[in-house]
Amino acid sequence: MNREDKYIQVREKILDWYKENKRDYPWRKSRSLFQILITEILLQKTIALNVKNIYNDFFTKYKDFSTINNADITKLQSDIKGLGLSNKRARILKELSHMIITDYEGKIPHDPEILRKINGIAEYVSNAFVCFGLNHRTFFFDVNIKRFIQRVFKSQDVKIKTVIIYSDLDKLLPKTDFKNMYWAILDFGNKICSKNNPKCELCPISDKCLYF
Ligand code: SF4
Q1: 80 lines ligand 1 (CB under 6 A)
Q2: To test the ligand 1 pocket, which listed residue (203, 207, 208, 210) has its Cβ within 8 A of the most ligand atoms?
Q3: Which of 9, 200, 210 is the pocket-test mutation for ligand 1 (most atoms within 8 Å of CB)?
């Protein structure tokens, strides 16, 4: 098996696994760019279940950037306190909403560089928004995606740089079904290839995994 074949086989197995094992989150079905971008900020440094728990109430109360821009920051902090880091998160939401209302007439700029002008919005959030919201095949990773790539494709003692992870994602992501592949890796990292005690005995790609 050459190296490119391995990426394709891992991709197909993980997408098959995802069909049967996907987690059900409302933001994966949303078509609202506002909700998709705000959700990526809510998801930072917390577990997805926490976001799921406040998702409906939050978006019932905060319907657009204008609502967040006009909201009392103490109230906003209180509405997201279950996620942790509520002061920082509320500040990011307020600054982002203010920029979009005052500089972009309430429409989200599609250039991720512009989103990254907000202190606290980095490559993951901005590129994930472009991927999930605008349907562009961008590259981004968190600790779960990085762990998956390291375990399956790399020596465990090698420190992998961002450029290498992006190159691996380029080989791994399908040309069109890239959103499902990202969600599949995240769910696989949660249910099977977890940080501690990965369930290698249940893993559909153990025969391709360097860690195994
Ligand atoms: Fe993760 Fe184990 Fe599967 Fe490798 S074999 S991908 S370490 S669960």
Answers
A1: no
A2: 203
A3: 200
- Residue 102 scores a pLDDT above 70: yes
pLDDT tens track for 9-50: 999 999 999 999 999 999 999 999 999 999 999 999 999 999
- Closest ligand 1 atom, CA of 210? 4
Q: State in Å: Cα 119 to ligand 1 middle.
A: 35
Q: Which residues contact 24 (CB under 8 A, 6 or more apart)?
A: none
Report the predicted TM-score, pTM, of the whole model to 2 decimal places: 0.94
Q: Taking all residues of the chain, what is their mean pLDDT, rounded to a whole number? A: 96
| Complete domains list, the chain, with CATH | 3-23+138-208 (1.10.1670.10), 26-132 (1.10.340.30)
